[in-house]
């Protein structure tokens, strides 16, 4: 029986959209089934792993929302209320869906399983739409979304490391890549794709923007002849950079302000670049094994890289040839073939681990595979076969991860148990001289370090602490919070000094009191934080307004003196 209703073009389009959404939803679930659902347990390294760190970030945001703090600067769930300023250095932007699930009554385990499904689904969708924008071929777009979303390195990030930040960056990377394509190869005035893609990456994962910046530099070098012929493409790149910078002021300014006032452990962190690079043979072995327990490019992409390497002269499309070469170079950058010791004391040390370049290699090679410059996927059956193979490899990788380390399967009840002192292995966002071990042994109450005073009625509600005092004589009192810049005692009554940092006692907040009164300490948004937040929000509104005006053709900007644009190539 023929499906005659599908002969209608509009109906067929609707059916295709519904099918695609359902496909992405199903595969997004099946990709996490083995590690998150199958055994009624979650596969994860607990303790001081990235998983515990990110779960505490979610828990802290959840508790802040309960206190009606929509944009918290300090995560007070860390270290049992001593606080951790991770929010300023590691944006909460992508954590809100998980925190809202907690508000709806989901447990931590239920929230993270649902959140992982959502991250998969969004990555599938964004990847598909971005590729379809450049090349409106349905199956090719599906191939790209499958190769990219189910890539070995991304699954390693999600299922093994559970690095929510970097996994979130994968959502916005295709959007940034679309912007890069338009600026350097396509319609240069479509630079907003790069603006929003890069901004999303910045607010998701602080390290990934550096990788994208390196990619942009390499593409710019490869496109020097075109840039000479059409230098306005560089102007588009400048606009994208400027707008992304303005949108990101709310992230960068508070971070730089804190680093100006406090010396953090992150500034003294030793570079991991040389030691983090893998041997070339190990990289190939990890990839061919298609396991997600080690950072690697994966079987499909390593085979594609070797084929492209020996057949690069047969790739006629110059864009795909450049992507192939840069993608292969990115793979080499993950290994000791790259002399990383040379860059050990340069800004590149912020990347920490060279295998992060697998992210860039993944998207470049996924684009080339989907475009099929060598004609391996000329039939629809070949495309469907490749997608099926990629899906089976993803299921196989997660299955072997679980069965290879079955002791890491944790019940949902175990997973729900929080680890407040899991602040990341590097403890980067603590002031220099802070001892986590000592803080764990420190009673969570005000302590008189010198002088005399009677203290009573101590209370803490998030960042707000208070206690009453009387008969105080030059009493120096340490409070059970780390004295990050922004904490103030200005709402206190009686003779209470400004809040300072006690560097001799784990950098705790300290006030000096005399007589009687009440100490009230809270975190107050600084002027720079307020200004940067407003500038970023205003920039977003201006961009939306101008885009809306352009869309409706309400104003012809080309007729405004000083804004005339010549036709781009």
From TrEMBL:
The keyword Transmembrane applies. The chain crosses the membrane at residues 14-33, 81-100, 112-132, 138-155, 167-185, 191-222, 234-253, 292-311, 323-343, 355-377, 535-554. The keyword Chloroplast does not apply. Keywords: Membrane, Transmembrane, Transmembrane helix. This is YfhO family protein.
């Amino acid at each position: 029986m023929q499906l005659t209703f599908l002969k209608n073009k509009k109906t067929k389009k609707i059916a295709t959209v519904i099918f695609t959404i359902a496909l992405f939803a199903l595969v997004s679930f099946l990709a996490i089934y083995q590690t998150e659902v199958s055994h009624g347990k979650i596969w994860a390294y607990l303790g001081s792993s990235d998983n515990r760190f990110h779960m505490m970030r979610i828990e802290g945001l959840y508790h802040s929302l309960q206190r009606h703090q929509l944009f918290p600067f300090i995560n007070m769930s860390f270290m049992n209320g001593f606080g951790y300023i991770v929010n300023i250095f590691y944006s909460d932007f992508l954590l809100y869906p998980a925190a809202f699930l907690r508000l709806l009554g989901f447990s931590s385990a239920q929230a993270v399983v649902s959140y992982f499904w959502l991250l998969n689904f969004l990555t599938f969708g964004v990847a598909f739409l971005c590729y379809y924008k450049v090349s409106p071929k349905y199956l090719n777009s599906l191939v790209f979304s499958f190769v990219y979303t189910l890539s070995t390195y991304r699954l390693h990030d999600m299922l093994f490391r559970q690095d929510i930040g970097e996994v979130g960056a994968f959502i916005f990377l295709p959007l940034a890549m679309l912007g890069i394509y338009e600026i350097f190869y396509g319609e240069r005035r479509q630079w907003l794709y790069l603006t929003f893609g890069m901004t999303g990456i910045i607010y998701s994962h602080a390290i990934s923007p550096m990788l994208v910046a390196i990619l942009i530099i390499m593409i710019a070098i490869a496109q020097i002849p075109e840039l000479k012929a059409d230098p306005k493409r560089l102007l588009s790149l400048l606009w994208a950079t400027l707008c992304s910078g303005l949108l990101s002021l709310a992230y960068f300014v508070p971070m730089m302000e804190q680093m100006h006032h406090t010396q953090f452990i992150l500034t003294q962190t030793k570079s991991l670049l040389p030691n983090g690079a893998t041997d070339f043979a190990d990289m190939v072995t990890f990839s061919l094994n298609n396991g997600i327990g080690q950072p690697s490019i994966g079987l499909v992409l390593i085979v594609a890289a070797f084929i492209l390497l020996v057949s690069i002269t047969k790739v006629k499309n110059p864009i795909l040839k450049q992507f192939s070469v840069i993608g292969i170079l990115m793979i080499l950058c993950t290994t000791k073939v790259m002399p990383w010791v040379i860059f050990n004391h340069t800004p590149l040390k912020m990347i920490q681990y060279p295998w992060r370049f697998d992210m860039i290699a993944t998207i470049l090679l996924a684009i080339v595979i989907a475009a099929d410059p060598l004609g391996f996927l000329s039939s629809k059956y070949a495309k469907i076969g490749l997608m099926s193979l990629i899906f089976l490899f993803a299921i196989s990788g997660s299955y072997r991860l679980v069965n290879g380390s079955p002791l890491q399967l944790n019940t949902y009840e175990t997973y729900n148990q929080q680890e407040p002192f899991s602040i990341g292995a590097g403890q980067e966002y603590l002031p220099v001289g802070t001892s986590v071990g000592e803080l764990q042994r420190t009673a969570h109450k005000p302590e008189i370090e010198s002088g005399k005073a009677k203290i009573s009625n101590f209370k803490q509600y998030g960042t707000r602490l208070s206690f009453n005092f009387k008969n105080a004589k030059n009493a120096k009192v340490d409070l059970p919070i780390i004295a990050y810049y922004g904490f103030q005692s200005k709402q206190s009554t009686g003779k209470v000094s400004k809040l300072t940092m006690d560097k001799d006692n784990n950098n705790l907040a300290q006030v000096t009191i005399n007589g009687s009164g009440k100490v009230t300490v809270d975190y107050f948004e600084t002027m720079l934080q307020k200004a940067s937040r407003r500038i970023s929000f205003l920039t977003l509104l201006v961009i939306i307004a101008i885009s809306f005006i352009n869309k409706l053709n309400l104003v012809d900007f080309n007729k405004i003196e000083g804004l005339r644009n010549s036709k781009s190539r």
